[in-house]
Amino acid sequence: MTATAERATSAQIAAEYQARFERYLREHRLLENRANRLSNWRAISFAGILAGLITGLAIPDLLLAGFAAAAVLLIVFIVQVRLHGRILSRLSRAARLVEVNREALARHRRDWEHLPKPRLAPDARHQSLAKDLDLFGRASLCQIMAPTHTPAGSADLKRWLVEPAAPAEIIARQQAVAELAPQLDWRQDLDLAGRQLGADSMHPERFVAWATGPRWLAGREWLLALAWLGPLAVLLLALAQGVGFVAGAWWMVVVVVQIVVSFFVCGRIHAIYNRISTRQGEIQAYSELFALAARMPHAAPEL
User: Fold this and answer.
1) In whole angstroms, what is the distance from residue 140 CA to residue 181 CA?
2) Half-sphere exposure (Cβ direction) of 172: Cα atoms closer than 13 Å
3) Distance between CA 79 and CA 75 in Å, rounded?
4) How many angstroms separate the CA atoms of 205 and 207, rounded?
5) Which has the closest alpha carbon to 157: 165, 148, 166, 149?
6) Quick one: which of 47, 69, 155, 159 has the most CB atoms within 10 Å?
7) pLDDT tens for residues 19-35?
8) Three-state SS for 95?
9) Helix axes 280-294, 204-211, angle to 10 degrees
10) How far is CA 68 from CA 3, 50, 53, 55, 62, in A?
11) Are the beta carbons of 21 and 98 closer than 8 angstroms?
């Protein structure tokens, strides 16, 4: 490729990222305005609900009208909340796409100050080689590449940078790169899904090991029955006492049984719940990564 052709290609790449940056920035501003307006309308609807309830309670003649107005506004408020949530989700996506394309422009211009600092570092046995070739650290090959977001991806990139590959493997990787290069939308969607993991993302093998391991409830099916039937028994026994069908407060017996059982099992249940709930966002991000991987172009054998 001639120097003129290289400059033309470089200018096209910069123009593509600049156009995407400006498009997502406009989208972000538009969605931000919509979110702010909808937030104001939510406040108005909520105030209307309170006004309807207060009016109905304060003026007996307007009780039905006030409560009816409050009910209608409550439905409107619920719809507004759902719409607001969708707009905020789109707003977050637009903001992340702005950042992705801003970084792409900085990467293209070798603007090291505006690129994320690489988190990867060479092993002790590769430090001299990595330093001589500027593989890691500031203004390095690692920094100019798009950042990895999963432990597996980071490990693979680190290995590829410091370990040699056979000529056939290099050709296969180049074929895969050539196929993925024009898939800019797909690659940026993959980047967005990875960014949701954060810098301290867990290794998926730990979750898979837990998910495929022994089930804690196996052999404790009676706990499920107690969880479903206990509250129902309390309700039925309380109603039976209220209508005079039974004389004593037998529902209290069921409550005591549930409290005793909870004392022995809640610690374990809460530990399991906390283990999952604290990583729920990462699990969802991994599911999005897998869904995107399923749509990845795969004509190249390496893909």
Assistant:
1) 21
2) 9
3) 6
4) 5
5) 148
6) 69
7) 999 999 999 999 999 99
8) helix
9) 100
10) 74, 12, 9, 11, 10
11) yes
Centre a 10 Å sphere on the Cβ of residue 273 and count the other Cβ atoms it contains: 11
- Determine the 3-state secondary structure of 20 from DSSP: helix
Calculate the alpha carbon distances from 227 to 254, 255, 268 in Å.
Answer: 11, 11, 15
How far apart (Å, rounded) are the C-alpha atoms in residues 303 and 298?
5
Q: How many residues appear in the chain? A: 303
Hey, how many other C-beta atoms are within 10 angstroms of the C-beta on 36? 11
| H, E, C per residue of 133-183 | HCCCCCCCHHHHCCCCCCHHHHHHHHHHHHCCCCHHHHHHHHHHHHHHCCC
- For residue 243, what is the enclosing H or E element? none
Query: What are the tens digits of pLDDT across the range 161-206?
Result: 888 899 999 999 999 999 998 899 999 999 988 888 765 566 666 6
Residue 100 class from Cβ within 10 Å (0-12 exposed, 13-18 middle, 19+ buried)?
Answer: buried
d(CA 251, CA 231): 9
- Which residue is listed with tokens 């749509």? 295
Element (H, E) at 15: helix 3-58
CA pair distance 89, 87, nearest whole angstrom? 5
Report the distance separating Cα 169 and Cα 36, nearest Å.
52
How far apart, in whole angstroms, are the C-alpha atoms of residue 97 and residue 103?
10
Q: How far apart are CA 90 and CA 115, in angstroms?
A: 24
